[in-house]
Design a protein that fits this description.
Layout lengths: L1 H20 L1 H7 L3 H7 L4 H20 L3 H27 L15 H4 L17 H22 L2 H26 L3 H5 L6 H12 L2 H4 L1 H12 L3 H5 L2 H20 L11 H24 L3 H10 L2 H8 L1 H19 L6 H21 L1 H15 L4
Length: 379
C-alpha cells in the first residue's frame, strides 16, 4: 500500500512542477483523465497516513502498554526511524541557494523539532516535508491513545476517533468557506494562481489539525480488525465493503476536478475529498485482512517482491523528489518540453538517490529503531 501511495504522490510532484515549467504542454493535457488522476495524487498523503495509523495500532497493541518510560522510548524509536535520511537531505539542502520553500537561509530549527508544518509554506525549509513532521507527532502521541483504546469499550474508542475524524473534515470545510477558497485554488487550475494556492496550502492542504483525520481512520480500521471473524463470516458484506471502498477512493480522487459544481459547494467538496479517500483505504485494509477471496488476491498482489522494494523507496522518494522537481523546473522552465521528458528529468534522479538512501541511511535507521524498541520492551 505504501508503494502505491508513493507512486501516486510522485505523479502529483511531476504534475505540480510541470504546471510551472511547461504550462503550454500541461494545458494541452488538462482534459486527459490521467492528468487529473495524477493531480489528485495530493490525496496520496491521506492514504499514507491511514496505513501509518493502521500499522501503528497493530504494532502497539501487539506489544502492550508499559507506562510513561515505555512511551518515551517508543517516541525515541520513532525519531530514530525518520531522522537519519531526513538529516542527511537537510544538510545537503542547506548548501543550496536560497529558494522559498526549499531553503530560506534561516536555521532549520523547526525541522529539527518536527514543527515545520506549523510554519507558512513560503518560509519553510523543505516545505514538502510537512507530512513527515505531522506523522512524527502522530506516531509520538499514538502510544497512550492506543493504550486507552485497548482498555476502552468499542463504542467509546471508535466514538472518540470518529469525533476527531469528523471534526477534521468539518474544520476543513469551514476554513475553505471562511477564506473563500475554490477547488481551483487547491489544484492550481488555469483559473487559479500561485499566490492563492500557497494560501490554500497553508490553510487547508498542509494544516496538521485538518490532515490528521486520516491517521485516526487507520487507528479505527485496526481496532475494527478485531472483529475480522465476523467479517469473514459474511462474504457478501465483504464484497460490498470492497466495492464501496473503491467507489469512495475514486470519488475522493475525482473531486478536485469537480469545477462544474456551484462555487458555494467547493468548500464541501474540498472537505470531502480527503476523508473519502481515507475511508476507502481504511475499508480496503479491513478487506485485505479478511479471508475473502478479493482480500486475499489484493494482499498477494501487494506482497509481491517488486512492490516491497518500491515501498522501501517511498520515504526517501518523499524527501528528495521535490528537490529534483525544483531542479528540473529551473533547467527546463520555459522550454515547453514534452511532459514525458519533464517526468524523466524528475523521476530518474529521484530513483537513483532514493535507492542510495535506502541502501545506506535507511538501513541504519531501521537498526536504530529496532534496537531502541528492543530495549524498550513491548513498547
Amino acid at each position: 500500500a505504501r508503494a502505491l501511495a508513493g507512486a501516486w504522490w510522485l505523479a502529483f510532484v511531476v504534475a505540480l512542477f510541470a504546471r510551472v515549467a511547461s504550462p503550454r504542454a500541461v494545458d494541452d493535457a488538462l482534459d486527459a483523465w490521467w492528468w487529473r488522476t495524477a493531480w489528485s495524487g495530493a490525496r496520496a498523503v491521506d492514504a499514507w497516513l491511514v496505513v501509518a495509523g493502521f500499522v501503528a495500532h497493530v504494532r502497539l497493541t501487539a506489544r502492550g502498554p508499559r507506562g510513561a518510560g515505555g512511551y518515551a522510548r517508543e517516541a525515541l524509536a520513532v525519531v530514530a526511524r525518520f531522522a537519519p535520511s531526513y538529516l542527511l537531505v537537510l544538510a545537503c539542502v542547506s548548501r543550496l541557494p536560497r529558494v522559498p520553500g526549499v531553503w530560506t537561509g534561516a536555521p532549520a530549527v523547526w525541522n529539527l523539532l518536527a514543527l515545520n508544518d506549523l510554519v507558512p509554506v513560503a518560509r519553510q525549509t523543505m516545505a514538502w516535508t510537512w507530512s513527515i513532521a505531522l506523522l512524527v507527532k502522530l506516531r509520538t502521541l499514538a502510544p497512550p491513545l492506543v493504550a486507552w483504546m485497548a482498555r476502552a469499550p468499542d463504542r467509546s474508542a471508535l466514538g472518540l476517533v470518529a469525533v476527531l475524524f469528523i471534526g477534521s473534515a468539518v474544520a476543513t470545510a469551514f476554513t475553505a468557506q471562511r477564506l473563500g477558497l475554490s477547488l481551483a485554488d487547491l489544484d492550481l487550475a488555469p483559473d487559479g494562481g500561485v499566490a492563492r494556492w500557497s494560501r490554500a496550502v497553508d490553510a487547508v492542504h498542509a494544516a496538521p489539525h485538518l490532515r490528521a483525520g486520516a491517521f485516526f481512520v487507520g487507528l479505527s480500521a485496526a481496532r475494527l480488525d478485531a472483529g475480522r471473524p465476523r467479517l469473514d463470516e459474511r462474504p457478501i458484506s465483504t464484497a460490498v465493503l470492497a466495492l464501496a471502498a473503491s467507489l469512495a477512493i475514486v470519488v475522493g480522487a475525482s473531486l478536485p476536478d469537480a469545477h462544474a459544481l456551484p462555487r458555494a459547494l467547493h468548500p464541501v467538496a474540498s472537505a470531502c475529498a480527503g476523508p473519502l479517500v481515507a475511508l476507502g483505504v481504511g475499508a480496503w485494509l479491513l478487506v485485505i485482512q479478511s479471508s475473502h477471496p478479493t482480500g486475499e488476491l489484493v494482499a498477494r498482489a501487494l506482497s509481491t517482491p517488486a512492490l516491497a522494494r518500491v515501498s522501501r523507496l517511498s520515504y526517501p522518494g518523499l524527501l528528495v523528489a521535490p528537490l529534483f522537481g525544483f531542479a528540473a523546473t529551473a533547467a527546463l522552465g520555459g522550454l515547453e518540453v514534452p511532459l514525458l521528458v519533464f517526468a524523466l528529468a524528475v523521476l530518474a534522479p529521484t530513483w537513483l538517490v532514493s535507492w542510495a538512501l535506502a541502501a545506506t541511511t535507511e538501513r541504519v535507521a531501521a537498526r536504530l529503531s529496532r534496537g531502541i524498541g528492543a530495549q524498550a520492551g513491548p513498547w
